Amino acid sequence: QELPAPMVALRVAAAMAARTEEIARGVLQGQRSALARAITMVESSNTDIYRQSQLLMSYIAERRPRTAATQRVGLSGPPGAGKSTFIEALGTWVVQTQSRKLAVLTVDPSSSVSGGSILGDKTRMVDLSREHNAFVRPSPSSGLLGGVARNTNDSVLLCEAAGYDTIFIETVGVGQSETAVADMVDMVALIVPPAAGDELQGLKRGIMEITDLVLVNKADGGLEDQALRAQTEYISALKLLRPRFSHWSPEAVCVSSVTRKGIEESWSLIQRFFQAGAQNHLLQSHRSNQYKSWMWRHIEERLVLDLRQNGRIAALLPAIETDVSTGKITAGAAADAVIDAYAASRTQS
């Protein structure tokens, strides 16, 4: 039976560890150290820590201020496009000139050996990390498709609860599997190198269809003319695609992390996007749909975690896996057997 809201709050308060509540209070007070610890908790694969992290999220959700609207921007692009360098240049300019508090969540490829981040973007955003009103956090993707970490959505909410009104999410690579970032941000910006023609054709249609702004980077020195030609081609390509939002037609601009060319123009376009979305109330509806997607993602992850830790399933799996590997049963039939056994174990308990 569903508990009324006051009872849920009491249950959360009773089950939450004192250390977890201390971290939650620190997040709401804007403490960067507490925010870092909270994100570590939601990223943990440890069952006990995971449960505490969800209590922490519920505690914060009930108490976080709901004042000014926040802005969530996803930034993706192929390797070598200079994503991190540009994000640092734009982010530093934003916090220094626009009176914004910026959180940058950089999702790194995971090491197949240690499971940790390979690139370590925080070490590549030294200047931005030193800014008082900036928070930079790299997270391993844990080998997941989608270009985003497993609990990036929770990290976004934590950053907003800590008072950060602008969230940048830098994602892994570019392609159809990286389009999951669109489910957790308001706007998607694609950062590309100054190439056109075959390079443009190499970009997957999936990422282009969710792109609201193309930033042709490295438009300086001998590459400036090439960048201008690429910009023209991207503008033409974007006209052939259906925009994600009725209030916005995607644009392409040339930028440079070295000369700071296009930094102010990029930010101006981002603000125009949000202003138009606010006037039409479309972004609010977009976020409501995203929250539903987040809920189902949590349900799926929790079910898989619970299934893997089920003793009855653990006892059945070796034999079932052997039958699948030898071709005695199909993968689909094996999956049905596992699900049926899991459902039976839950009913008996």
Structure description:
By secondary structure, the protein is of the alpha/beta class. 53% of the residues lie in helices and 11% in strands. It has helices spanning 5-15, 18-28, 32-43, 47-63, 83-97, 126-130, 152-161, 198-202, 205-209, 224-239, 263-280, 282-308, 311-325, 331-348; strands spanning 71-76, 102-108, 134-140, 166-170, 187-192, 213-216, 251-254. It has a seven-stranded parallel β-sheet with strand order 3-2-4-1-5-6-7, with helices on both faces. Strand 6, helix 10 (224-239) and strand 7 (251-254) form a beta-alpha-beta unit. Helix 2 (18-28) packs across helix 4 and helix 3 (32-43) packs across helix 4. The longest helix is centred in the last third of the chain and has 27 residues, at 282-308.
Quick synopsis:
This protein has 349 residues and is α/β, with parallel strands linked by helices.
Which helices and strands appear, and what pairs or packs with what?
Layout: H1 5-15, H2 18-28, H3 32-43, H4 47-63, E1 71-76, H5 83-97, E2 102-108, H6 126-130, E3 134-140, H7 152-161, E4 166-170, E5 187-192, H8 198-202, H9 205-209, E6 213-216, H10 224-239, E7 251-254, H11 263-280, H12 282-308, H13 311-325, H14 331-348
Parallel strand pairs: 1-4, 1-5, 2-3, 2-4, 5-6, 6-7
Terminal Cα separation, in Å? 17 Å
Gross morphology is globular
Number of strands: 7
Pattern of helices and strands: HHHHEHEHEHEEHHEHEHHHH
Major sheet: arrangement of strands: 3-2-4-1-5-6-7
Helical element count?
A: 14
Largest β sheet strand count, sense and barrel closure: 7 strands, parallel
Percent of residues in helices comes to 40-55%
The parts where pLDDT drops under 50 for at least 5 residues are 110-122, 143-147
- Helix vs. strand class: alpha/beta
Give the percentage of residues in beta strands. Answer: 5-15%
Radius of gyration using CA atoms only: 22 Å
